[in-house]
Amino acid sequence: MKIERIRLRQIRMPLKHHFETSFGRTYERRIVLVEVEDGDGAAGWGEVTCGENPFYNEEWVDAAWMILRDYAAPRVLRAEVESAADIAPLTARVRGHRMARGGLEAACWELEARKKGIPLWRHIGGTRSETQSGVSIGIQDSREELLAIVAAALADGYRRIKIKIKPGWDIDAVAAVRERFPQTPLMADANSAYTLADRERLRQLDAFGLTMIEQPLAHDDIVDHAELQKSIATPICLDECIRTARHAEQAIRLGACRIVNIKLGRVGGFREARRVHEVCAANGIPVWCGGMLEAGIGRAHNIALSMLSNFTLPGDVAASKRYWSRDIVAPAVEVTPQGAIAAPSGPGLGYALDRERIEALTERREELT
After folding, report:
1. pLDDT at 24 > cutoff 90
2. Where are the beta strands (DSSP E) in the chain?
3. Share of the chain above pLDDT 90, in %
4. Average per-residue pLDDT for the chain
5. Are residues 41 and 167 in the same domain?
6. At what angle do helices 223-231 and 245-254 cross, to 10 degrees?
7. Domain range for residue 84?
8. Across residues 3-14, what is the average pLDDT?
9. Same-domain status, 174 and 56
10. Which of 26, 145, 170, 203 could cross-link to 140 by cystine, CB 3.0-4.6 Å?
11. Are residues 218 and 78 located together in one domain of the fold?
């Protein structure tokens, strides 16, 4: 494989409904798309999943553009590699910025799968025929509004509900959902909103039979999570602090979690995502695929990742229509009435690009050769 051309494109997409977490409210997404092209003119696409601001982690859209243009792309262009698995080491000298580097790496995997004429999920080693889909529900203005959104999601067939929590929107919100929907698989995502000083408050969540609580403590912490897990019955799922397979190994050894969320961008692409998956599988730790309000390209990559064998818990890969009035792939991603997304059969992503939509949303572009 030799990449001869890299095109960067930034699009702006308004969400159908704002999405709020412990670190802010989002009304629209600015997303960097990466297109790679080889000497034969074949192309593959990736999506950079970072946010508009450096709140989830240190990455944000404007920085990702510069990292791709000035550091990652020059190291990939015209480098001869055996396969897409060799792309990530080319940018490893760049510390951090895994979402930017991962968007480029994912595009190369998609290109390789497309040239082989096989679905991306199969190319990366997936064996599942479908993935179970859950939804992530942001912080709402009232419990009544939260309950209405949960009811609508369950009516659409989703298999698991995740609600965002923060101090002041936690125990009462979870209790209300559990009382109304006593049998629904339910989890809470704190996005690092608590400290060990909140241990007793977090222990109150044990009463609600949650599948997990996700990243309750600091975004870069493993040690305190291990102490907290000893204090609560609810399984801890780690997200932000697991960026490499080594982090996963350390967290498991310390007993810091019983579940791991794998986000393709957070770990820097498919090469590292597969390594994290293998570490967790070898240690009996189930994984699931988290979301970052992706558009259709990133959503399709998440679907491919979710077909690996140890993705046994419903992920955050929901239907396009939950977030977008019109996605950038056609047909849009859909969820069956049974709450599943089938593995696509076409080559590469398995979804066609809605180029007219992409063009209409584009606000910046650059071509690198």
Report:
1. no
2. 3-21, 24-38, 43-48, 130-132, 135-137, 161-164, 186-189, 212-214, 236-238, 259-262, 287-289, 329-330, 340-342, 352-353, 362-368
3. 98
4. 97
5. no
6. 40
7. 3-117+352-368
8. 98
9. no
10. 145
11. no
What is the distance between the alpha carbons of residues 251 and 221, in angstroms, rounded to a whole number? 9
Tokens of 335: 């969820």
What is the CATH number for 203?
A: 3.20.20.120
At 35, which CATH number? 3.30.390.10
Asked about 321 being catalytic, the answer comes back as no
**How many CB atoms are closer than 10 A to CB 178?**
17
> Are 200 and 333 part of one and the same domain?
yes
Q: Which candidate in 2, 16, 166, 263 is catalytic?
A: 263
pLDDT tens digit sequence for 221-260:
999 999 999 999 999 999 999 999 999 999 999 999 999 9
User: Of 164, 166, 230, 321, which is the active-site residue?
Assistant: 164
Mean pLDDT for 295-314 is 98
- Cα separation, 215 vs 266, whole angstroms: 14
Residue 298's identity, in one-letter code, is: G
**Rg from Cα positions in the chain:** 20
Instruction: State which H helix or E strand residue 241 sits in.
Output: none
- 322 and 213 fall within a common domain: yes
Q: Which of 10-14, 17-21, 162-166 has the lowest mean pLDDT?
A: 17-21
Is there a single domain that holds both residue 220 and residue 321? yes
Q: How many structural domains compose the chain?
A: 2
In a domain, 347, yes or no: no
Residue 76 lies in a domain: yes
pTM of the model: 0.96
Residue 343 CB contacts under 8 Å (≥ 6 apart), including other chains = 119, 121, 122, 126, 128, 129, 130, 131, 303, 307, 350
What residue has token string 């998440």? 302
Q: Is 263 a catalytic residue?
A: yes
Q: Please, what's the b/e burial string for 246-283 (b: 16 or more CB within 10 A of its CB; e: otherwise)?
A: ebbbbbbeeebbbbbbbbbbbbbbbbbbbbbbbbbbee
- Residues 83, 131: one domain? no
**In this predicted structure, what is the pLDDT of residue 247?**
98
Are 69 and 91 within one domain?
yes
